[in-house]
Every structure is written in C-alpha cells, then in structure tokens.
Specification:
Structural class: alpha+beta
Distance between the termini: 110 Å
Shape: elongated
Order of helices and strands: HHHEEEEEE
Strand content: 15-25%
Helix content: 55-70%
Largest sheet: 3 strands, antiparallel
Oligomer: single chain
Length: 173
C-alpha cells in the first residue's frame, strides 16, 4: 500500500498549518508585549521608589530641625540679653534653660546622654583621649568626661570622650 495524498488534502493541511503558525505568532506577540510592559512597569516602579527614598532622606530631619529652631531662638535672646549688659546670673539661668530645652528635644527624637564618670572604660561607649595617674581610682576607670556620650534609641550615637585612670606604676601617655 502506498500513502498517496491528493493535492487538495496537502493544500488543506498546508493552510491549516499556516493558520496555526499565524495564531502561534499572534499569541507570542501578545505575550512579548505583556512581558515588555511588565519590565517597563517594574523599571518605573524602581525609579519611583528610588526618588521617594531620596526625597525621604532629604527631608527626614525636617521635624527635628523644626523642634530645634525655638531652642536657637532662645540662644539668640540669651546672647542679646548678655550683650545688653544683663547680670551674669540671669544669663547663666537662661543658658541652663536652653540646655534643658535642647535635651528635651533630643530625647523626643530618641537621643539621650549617658554618664561615663566612674564607669570602667568600654571602647564601645567611650573614646579615651588621655590617661592620668590616679592612685585613688581603679585601673581603666573613667575619671573625667570631656564630652558627654549620647545614645540613639539604645545605640551609641556618639561615644563619650573621656580621661582614663591608670595605676601609678604604669606608663602614662
């Protein structure tokens, strides 16, 4: 038996295959278009997120600065009063008030000072700038605080700058 097909059957088969090929091309074009649109949308979303992040970073400190401006105004008033010849006691009281006000603003934003004097030296919380002979203090104990340390939500924002005691028989630097 020979497998002979008539030309009409071959032409019908060829037309059916062409139609199937055209349908497959159309589906592929649709999917390619959807894919390209999704890639473009993802790229736009990344760019939008980056812009929003940059904007947030630029203005993240705005609320802190708004809170600090009245403190700065009070400094201006205190200095103006000192220039006008007000007594030193009033000037001192004004500056102490401003210091308390500034500490309140810092605490509102999570920054709190910590004391280092009398504490054992901790390189995570203290930055030693000097060692001194102190027979009455324990070795490597903070004996003086040059600048207060601050924590931001429990994490060291700035270490305390300190002077550390050393025993009399060690070399001082």
């Amino acid at each position: 038996m020979t497998d002979e097909t008539t030309p009409i059957e071959t032409e019908d088969e060829l037309a059916r295959l062409r139609q199937a090929l055209e349908e497959t091309k159309r589906v592929l074009d649709e999917k390619t278009d959807r894919y390209l649109r999704a890639v473009a949308e993802l790229d736009n979303q990344k760019k939008r997120a980056q812009r929003e992040r940059e904007e947030y970073i630029r203005f993240a400190t705005a609320s802190l600065l708004r809170e600090l401006l009245p403190v700065l105004d009070n400094f201006d008033r205190a200095l103006g009063a000192a220039r006008a010849g007000a007594e030193a006691q009033g000037f001192l009281a004004g500056v102490e008030l401003i210091q308390r006000e500034l500490l309140k603003v810092l605490e509102k934003f999570g920054a709190t000072p910590y004391s280092a004097v009398g504490q054992p030296f901790d390189p995570e919380r203290h930055e030693a700038v000097q060692r001194v002979l102190k027979p009455d203090a324990s070795d490597m104990t903070v004996v003086e605080e040059i600048a207060r340390g601050y924590l931001l939500n429990g994490r060291v924002l700035r270490p305390a700058i300190v002077v550390v005691a050393v025993p009399p028989d060690s070399d001082t630097a």
